[in-house]
Amino acid sequence: MSIFKCRYGDFSVPEKNDLIFNALREYGEWAQEELNLLERFVRSGDTVIDAGAFIGTHARAFSQMVGSQGVVHAFEPNDQIYSELLKNVQLASYSNIKTYQIALGACEQSMHLLQNKSQMNLGASSLSCDDRSVGIEIVRVQALDSFDFPLINFIKADVEGMEHKLS
Question: Residue 167: pLDDT band by 50, 70, 90 thresholds?
Answer without folding.
Answer: very low
